[in-house]
Each structure stands twice: as C-alpha cells, then as structure tokens.
C-alpha cells in the first residue's frame, strides 16, 4: 500500500505540475472530485480495516506484555510499563500514507461540497467588467441560486431561480468550456437584443442610461466615458471608448448565428430558447456574446455576488450589482 499510495500522490502532483506549466489543460473540478473519491476510499479502508487491525495488534501486545510482566513479577523483577505505553503508541500510530490520504479526506470533502454546491471563489483576470469588477478582485459565486448542479458533469439537479437581466454571471466559455468567463446577463431567452451605435435596446425598448463622471483606468492611464445603466432590478456603471468603432470585428461562427444581424452600427440578436446573451460592462473592451454567441443554460456556473478580497484595495470588499 505505501508504494501504491506514493504512486497515486505522485500522479496528482505530476498532473498539477503539468497544469501549472500549461503542458495540459487542467480541470480543477475533476481533480477535486477524484481527490475526494480517492481519499474517501482510503478513509473507509482506515476506519473499517487498518485501524481495527492496529487496535487488535495493540491489544495483543498489551496481553503479551501483561503475561510477561506477571512472569517477571513472580521472579521479583520490576515490570516495564513505560515501554508498553510507548510501544502501543507506535502500533496505533497512523502511517504516513494514511495520514496523507484518509487524514485529509474530511477537509477535502468539506471543500468539495462547499465549492460544488454552495460558493466558489474566483479571481478576475481581465478588465472586461470594469468598472464593476477590477483586475485582481477576488469574488464569491453563489452556486445554488440558479439551481444545484452535479460537479464535473454540470447536470442540473434543482431548478432554482432563473437568471435575470442585469445579473453578473459566471459560466463556461462556449467555444472552450474548460474556461470560466464572467459577464452580465443582458438578454434572456426570447429577447431581441440590439446594441447599435453603443446604445442597448431590449425588445425595442431602449435601456435607461445616465451619464456619470469619466472613469480613470489606472492600467490604461486614461479616462473613459462612464454611464449608469438600469437593467431589470440592477443599476450598474459601464464604460464606452470613443476611439473604438460601433461595429463588431472578428465575429466567430457559433450556434444560432443566423439569429444575429451585424452592421456598421453594431449587432441585433434574437436570443434562442434556453440561452442567454452576455456583455461586459467595459463595453468596448469585452469579448462577449457579440463575438462568440449565446450561453446555453447548461454552461451556467453561478451568480457572482461579492468581492471578498482585493489585496491592492481593501475598500473594494463588499457586495456589488
């Protein structure tokens, strides 16, 4: 068993290393699931086989020592009780290969359940959601609002509450589902979404928009026009870049692309059933549904609700819309 355990642990380390150096495309949900299963099997083996066997060995050692001490006492020789306590401790001690598997199972199981069904942390890697979310923000994603899903398979177990316009949602990037993206829900199933000349219209009704003071982007070292937008129950800020044209360049082929009409003014899309149209708040610096299409319901990961840390600016910690 020590050799088998060493091989299993080495395989996990090798996979993590290959993922870190981008030799393979990692899947943390799958890795965590496998770690939970493997350590769970070791925990069961420890509880029902290895620990009882060590206890039987300790009991046998105690009986042999008692018999020996009785014999020594009959001869007038002092017993060796301190040596017995130390020997029992060694017999009952958990070997390293169980300590690193069965011993970690409760912690890994707790992380697996928390991450799969309750909340999952993410780090914002890009500026597509500025000014709502900045690069480096550590956010918390609610995994049950939109319905509980099986980990790895992402199969829905409960219906939950359907996504609403204005929700900030994490989802699996349709062209490459191994990647997680974060954008704002703009179009629901059946909606006609128009983004023409940098103005958003849903089902023929312009989305309310008010001008705010210009936003200074520290990374770009320049100011951008900032507006306040009302999407459903959500009021949020967005950015526009006057130097970027209104048309959408480099559009990819995607399912139901025929539902969209592109022009020099922008794009108009009819959202298919069971899908969503997503956009970033940094409207001219966001690779979103305008470029790669609609997000299917099965790609949903959860609803982003909270910035729980930003090591560069503690004031950013809190809820957001």
Automatic annotation (TrEMBL):
It catalyses: Cleavage of hydrophobic, N-terminal signal or leader sequences from secreted and periplasmic proteins. It is an enzyme of class 3 (hydrolase). Residues 98-309 form the Peptidase S26 domain. InterPro entries: LexA/Signal_pep-like_sf (IPR036286), Pept_S26A_signal_pept_1 (IPR000223), Pept_S26A_signal_pept_1_CS (IPR019758), Pept_S26A_signal_pept_1_Lys-AS (IPR019757), Pept_S26A_signal_pept_1_Ser-AS (IPR019756), Peptidase_S26 (IPR019533). It is found in: Membrane. GO terms for cellular component: membrane. Keywords: Hydrolase, Membrane, Protease, Transmembrane, Transmembrane helix. Its EC number is 3.4.21.89. The active site is at residues 128, 183. PROSITE patterns: SPASE_I_1 (PS00501), SPASE_I_2 (PS00760), SPASE_I_3 (PS00761). It is a single-pass type II membrane protein. The keyword Transmembrane applies. This is Signal peptidase I. It comes from Ramlibacter ginsenosidimutans.
